[in-house]
Structure formats: C-alpha cells, structure tokens
Design a protein that fits this description.
The protein has 12 helices and no strands. It is mostly helical.
Amino acid sequence: LFTSLAEMTYCTGRTMEHKAAANEVLIHSKSIDDSLRAHMAKIRCLLGENNDSETVATMLQVMNELGEPLPPKPSKSFTKAQLGQLRQRLDSTTDEEILFLPIMKSRRKSSAIRIMCDTLFPLENVNRDLSKTALCRMVNIILDNGLSSDSASVFAIVGYHCASEYDIDMAVRCTKLSMALLKRPEFRAGKCVSTGFNVKTRHWREP
C-alpha cells in the first residue's frame, strides 16, 4: 500500500509525501524484493530533482542488494578492460543469437537493467567511467540471462556510446539490434529512449 502511495505521489508531484511513503517501505522491508518498487520510485524522484550525487549513491546501494555491485569509482584501466571484453564478447556473438535469446525470467536482473538505464545520465555527470561500466554490465546481464523489456534501449545507448568513440561499425550494429527489438511489442518499454539514441547514431551512417 505504501509503495503504491509512493508511486502515486511521485506522479502527482507531491514530493514530500512521496519521500515519506517510500521511506516507510524502505524502513520496514525485509528484503530487496519487498523494497524494490519503493527504491525505483525514490530514484525517479531524485532524477526529477536533478540530484545526481544522491541518485548515484542510491543506485549503487540498490545494485549491491540486487547482486550486481558496481565499483563506485572504477579506474580508467578497469573501464577500458571492461569495454574490451564486451567488444570481444559481442564480436563472438551473432545478431541472430542475440535477437533470439530467451526472455529474461529474473525480476532482479531485469530491475537492475531498468535502474541502470534510468540513471545513466547522472552516472555520466558524476563519473564517466562508472557509466561505461554500467553499460558493459547491462549488456553482459542480457547475454547471460536473456532479453528484458529494456533491451532495445540498452543496445540503442551502447550504439550511441560506440558512435561517440568513433567505433561506427559497432554503433551501426547495435542500432540495428535496437531497431529489430523495437518491432517486437515485448521490448517497447523504452521506445522513446531507443528512438532518440538511434537517431543520434544514424547520422553517422544509415543502418
């Protein structure tokens, strides 16, 4: 009940009531499964307030509880290694293998992806290497556990990142994957996000 109240008060702009309801859930919850919706509502509220530092701190805490801990201050060498490993993994996986992955069954894994997608801009503002680490983690979760409803958004964002690093071939490939997933109704959760990033990437080369 308090979780629904937190979500409702967020949608109606009643910030103080939202925080009180969310905190009530977080104080009395026994596990991350009980508090997950309240955490996500709190993160959305922090995003609306442009409170980047607290958003990132909350996101890192939730990721730990979900079993997907991220290093709060990854080094550039760590990030470079993560990106290199991800590139190797994508190079060894065909588009067909990705597009026909099973649907992700783990609520915790799909929630982790949703939270990382939602907080990428604050992550970018606070620590660019942390945002790149989160990108790698999202793709690895998908490859290991199957496609979530945010998979189209993930590949669109990765494509945009690759374009910004002038890796145009991989950028176009990820854009194609995102566009292919958007044709399937179960992957349209982030249609606006996906379309926006895909348009930014496609000015380099039409897929």
